[in-house]
Amino acid sequence: MKENKTKNIVIRLTEEEKDKLVKRAGSVGKSLSSYIREVSLKDNITSKTDIQTVYELKKIGANINQLVKHANMLPVDENVRQILARMNKYLSDIDRIKKNLL
Question: How far apart, in whole angstroms, are the C-alpha atoms of residue 44 and residue 97?
């Protein structure tokens, strides 16, 4: 059974601090109250974004590994440009993920 939350705590924040908390709560899919409660009462929060990011990075890593194996089986010049272009795309994907995290 869900417990009713009846107690309040009042804190004072600057507009910038509040905006930062609202943004962080939204980034992990939580309401502001829920986010502050979890951050205050738990050691660590694993966000859906973190799980998705790890999944995407693993996928990119597997793709790069397959490309390298394929490149090692090719004659020296055959399709090397194509493989390098695909590698650049994966590196761009990694940069995009990195920018989203920061």
Answer: 22
pTM, rounded to two decimals: 0.41
pLDDT in tens, the chain (102 residues): 678 888 888 999 999 999 999 998 998 888 999 889 888 887 666 666 677 777 888 888 888 888 777 777 777 666 777 777 788 888 888 888 877 765
Q: Please, are residues 32 and 25 in contact by the beta-carbon 8 Å criterion?
A: yes
Do residues 24 and 45 make contact, with C-beta atoms less than 8 angstroms apart?
no
CB 54 within 8 A of CB 100: no
Looking at residue 66, the DSSP 8-state letter turns out to be H
Sign of torsion, CA 6 11 15 16? Answer: negative
Q: What single-letter amino acid sits at 64?
A: I
Q: Are 85 and 97 in contact (CB under 8 A)?
A: no
